[in-house]
Design a protein that fits this description.
Largest sheet: 8 strands, mixed
Number of strands: 11
Order of helices and strands: EHEHEEEEHEHHEHEEE
Strand content: 25-35%
Oligomer: single chain
Low-confidence stretches: 1-35
Mean pLDDT: 80
Shape: globular
Length: 211
């Protein structure tokens, strides 16, 4: 597996993850000390302040306060009373908590973000956006089409925690159609005796970091 050069972590899903957020453990065979640059993208003030406090002075770390989706726009962010349920999507039938307030958030796409910041490729893209993960991938179409993302580590949800969350087969087909192969599922979380969510790792064997 190639040395990681650019790691982008989408961190804007909820309070709980931002409160406990640390730089990711590169448990897929990568040497964390060799990562050239780590970018955290957050759409929420609280998580932004938490990341700034913990990692604002860390070498080769860039913090960005913006949402990532399929188009550039302003979206409503639903802040939930349960720290791990805040999302751009409304609560679904399998969700929990209640909406405390609705916050307008500026959203961009990963393609546009990388163009504006002159990022040629991403070695590891970590996406955990509380139901908006497929939108993040759709906003990365140029990067995906040109094989500029090597690894995608993302949350996969099997139940309707959010209203409008895409089913697993739609996410899997989207990545498979763009030459990504499933490497592994990780720890499963269950609700009412059924698989609720997990993290999955995908790899593009045709990853091309340079033109």
């Amino acid at each position: 597996m190639q040395t990681p050069i650019e790691t982008v972590n989408q961190v804007y899903e909820n309070y709980a993850n931002s409160l406990n957020h640390e730089m990711p453990n590169l448990e897929i065979g990568q040497d964390r000390s060799r990562v050239k640059h780590y970018r955290a993208i957050s759409d929420h003030l609280f998580s932004d302040l938490t990341l700034e406090k913990r990692h604002g002075s860390t070498k080769n770390v860039s913090l960005n306060k913006v949402g990532i989706g399929d188009v550039s726009c302003t979206k409503t962010f639903f802040e939930n009373s349960s720290l791990d349920m805040s999302s751009f999507l409304p609560i679904g039938r399998d969700g929990w908590g209640r909406v405390k307030r609705e916050i307008p958030i500026d959203v961009t796409t990963l393609d546009l973000y990388c163009q504006q910041n002159r990022i040629a490729y991403i070695s590891t893209l970590k996406v955990d956006t509380q139901g908006l993960d497929l939108d993040v991938l759709k906003g990365s179409e140029d990067l995906l089409a040109n094989h500029r993302i090597q690894l995608i580590l993302m949350e996969i949800t099997f139940i309707e925690i959010y209203d409008g969350i895409p089913p697993f087969d739609e996410v899997f087909r989207f990545l498979a159609d763009r030459n990504f192969k499933l490497v592994s599922f990780y720890k499963f979380y269950y609700k009412n005796g059924l698989a609720g969510w997990t993290d999955a790792l995908f790899i593009n064997p045709d990853f091309t970091p340079f033109s």
